[in-house]
Structures are given as structure tokens and as C-alpha cells.
Amino acid sequence: MFDDLEENTEYRIRVRGKNLCGAGEWSDYEIFSTRQCPSVMNKPVVTLDEGETTVRISWEKPVANEGQIENYRISFRKSDSSYVEIPEYCNGDNSNVESCDVPMEVLVDLLVL
After folding, report:
1. Residue 85's beta-bridge partner residues?
2. Which residues span the domain enclosing 101?
3. pLDDT tens digit sequence for 55-70
4. What's the number of domains the chain is made of?
5. Domain-located, residue 36
6. Which pTM value belongs to this model?
């Protein structure tokens, strides 16, 4: 509804109705503030288990500041430069999770053309 809002900023809005007969009175002002964005995430760490059968992707949560981290989006870049998500192994809907494990054969099947 509102585009280009600045983070950590206070705004005042008011509205009024308008129809064919004219415009009504303005509402009282409503004051709201936007939250501060979370900090930028650090680069994730990718490791292989001893048998090289599972890839672990792990990350540190960014500082939430006044914002709330709702989820993570975990995408893998394919060799054709497109991206794919693998939600059955790396589902970012739980913001408390800081890693995911993907079987190597899944990555090979998905990422190699």
C-alpha cells in the first residue's frame, strides 16, 4: 500500500472518503513508525561431512535491531546461473534454525545440467 517508506521513521497519515457527491472530512492523524531493518547477514559457511555424503549450510543470525526476522530464503545457484530452492532440506520458514543439511546426491541431481 505504501512504497518507499524509510526504516526507523515516524509517519503520520490521515484519510477521507470521496464519492460522486464530493469529499468527506479528513480523519484524525494516525501515527506509526517503521522498524529498523536487520543487519546484513554474514557469508554462510558450507561444509562436507566426513563421508562427503552431506553438505551442511550454516549461518549466523543477523542482528535483528528493532526488526523481526521472519524467515530465511535459501537458494542454490545452478550451473546455468538460475536459482533453485530445496525446501524439503533447507526450509527457511523457521527463523530459529541456523543450518540445514542437504544430501550430496540431491545437490548433484539438481545443480548439474
Report:
1. 75
2. 45-111
3. 999 988 877 666 677 7
4. 1
5. no
6. 0.57
